[in-house]
Design goal:
Layout lengths: L3 E4 L2 E4 L4 E7 L8 E7 L6 E7 L4 E3 L7 E6 L4 E6 L8 E9 L2 E4 L3 E6 L1
Length: about 120
């Protein structure tokens, strides 16, 4: 269905910040839930943050107070602001669109946090 492209990943120092972007090929205004997931080395994919079309957000405990998800429907873009990054945040970060049970995924963007 909808195509998602992540960007903004890269190498950052311990304690640094990055802002990830998820650009959708079409309107996300009607998408129920947009989310960021991540998969670190040797780990399973895990949810990081979600935001509903009404703007309600939820965060995994391990990023609370450090990460912030936002949604700009006019630009068909979802963002993930990541502050106070730690080496354990190193992972491929994926954008997800959950349209009433139908899921679309981006190919991911790599975030590497150096010690």
């Amino acid at each position: 269905q909808i195509q998602l492209v992540e960007s903004g990943g890269g190498l950052v120092q311990d304690g640094g910040s990055l802002r990830l972007s998820c650009q959708a090929s079409g309107s996300i205004a009607g998408i129920n839930v947009m989310a960021w997931y991540r998969q670190g080395p040797g780990k399973q994919r895990e949810a990081v943050a979600t935001i509903t079309r009404r703007g309600s957000t939820n965060y995994a405990d391990f990023v609370k107070g450090r990460f912030a998800i936002s949604r700009d429907n006019a630009k068909n873009t979802v963002y993930l602001q990541m502050n106070s990054l730690k080496p354990e945040d190193t992972a491929v970060y994926y954008c997800n669109a959950d349209h009433w049970g139908m899921n679309s995924w981006g190919k991911g963007t790599l975030v590497t946090v150096s010690s």
